[in-house]
């Protein structure tokens, strides 16, 4: 499995990303994660939909909390053919509790805590911490990767306007 150093920092310190580099235009790899009811969930479960994959380190951090809430607000205006999935290494129980407390009901939170399948297939697993680097992917309705935003510092928010433009470009 490929390891890449120096692309991302966590608290200003370089980390190692594990997994393959994904490029716009290629088929988005399928993966398996757990939903909040401990059921396996795959990207292929959303076939035919536009899917936004928001990888975050932990919902229990300020930036990840803010990002997921903003995507929840954004989802309201995107229609039924767009699914926003926030994926972290948080346990499903934590995600379910967080969603209830935060009032997040339009974003689906998913846990990569068991196998890190998403993290390694999408090349965003931080080896040093076994958390996901902040990244946003947009997958079109045919399963093609149309947008990738890997944040150079895990503690910074994504460019939401760019993400929205990428979503609108494939609607």
Overview of the structural elements:
The chain is an alpha+beta fold. It has four helices and eleven strands. The protein has a five-stranded mixed sheet with strand order 7-6-5-10-11. Strands 1-2-8-9 form a four-stranded antiparallel sheet. A hairpin with a 5-residue loop joins strand 3 and strand 4 (40-42). The chain is globular. The termini are far apart. 36% of the residues are buried. The mean pLDDT is 96.
CATH superfamily: Glutaredoxin
Task: Please provide the count of β strands.
Answer: 11
User: Whole-number radius of gyration?
Assistant: 14 Å
Q: Unreliable stretches, pLDDT < 50, 5 or more residues?
A: none
> What's the rounded overall pLDDT mean?
96
SS field, number of helical segments: 4
What's a concise summary of this model?
The protein has 171 residues and is an alpha+beta fold. Helix content is 24%, strand content 31%. It has helices at residues 62-75, 92-102, 117-121, 160-170, and strands at 3-10, 13-18, 32-34, 40-42, 50-55, 82-88, 107-111, 125-126, 131-132, 135-139, 145-150.
Key features?
171 residues; globular; four-stranded antiparallel sheet; 24% helix; alpha+beta; 31% strand; Glutaredoxin; 4 helices; 11 strands; five-stranded mixed sheet
Draw up the topology in text.
Blueprint: E1 3-10, E2 13-18, E3 32-34, E4 40-42, E5 50-55, H1 62-75, E6 82-88, H2 92-102, E7 107-111, H3 117-121, E8 125-126, E9 131-132, E10 135-139, E11 145-150, H4 160-170
Parallel strand pairs: 5-6, 6-7
Antiparallel strand pairs: 1-2, 2-8, 3-4, 5-10, 8-9, 10-11
């Amino acid at each position: 499995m490929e390891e890449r150093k120096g692309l991302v920092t966590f608290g200003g310190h370089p980390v190692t990303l594990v997994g393959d580099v994904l490029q716009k235009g290629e088929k988005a790899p399928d993966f398996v994660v757990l939903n909040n009811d401990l059921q396996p969930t795959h990207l292929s479960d959303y076939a035919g939909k536009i899917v936004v994959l928001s990888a975050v380190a932990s919902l229990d951090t300020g930036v990840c909390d803010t990002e997921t809430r903003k995507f929840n607000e954004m989802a309201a205006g995107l229609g039924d053919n767009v699914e926003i999935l926030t994926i972290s290494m948080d346990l499903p129980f934590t995600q379910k509790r967080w969603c209830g407390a935060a009032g997040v009901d339009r974003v689906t939170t998913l846990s990569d805590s068991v196998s890190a399948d998403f993290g390694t297939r999408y090349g965003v697993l931080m080896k040093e911490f076994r958390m996901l680097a902040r990244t946003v992917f947009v997958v079109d309705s045919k399963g093609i990767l149309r947008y990738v935003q890997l944040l150079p510092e895990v503690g910074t928010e994504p460019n939401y306007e760019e993400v929205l433009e990428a979503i609108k470009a494939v609607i």
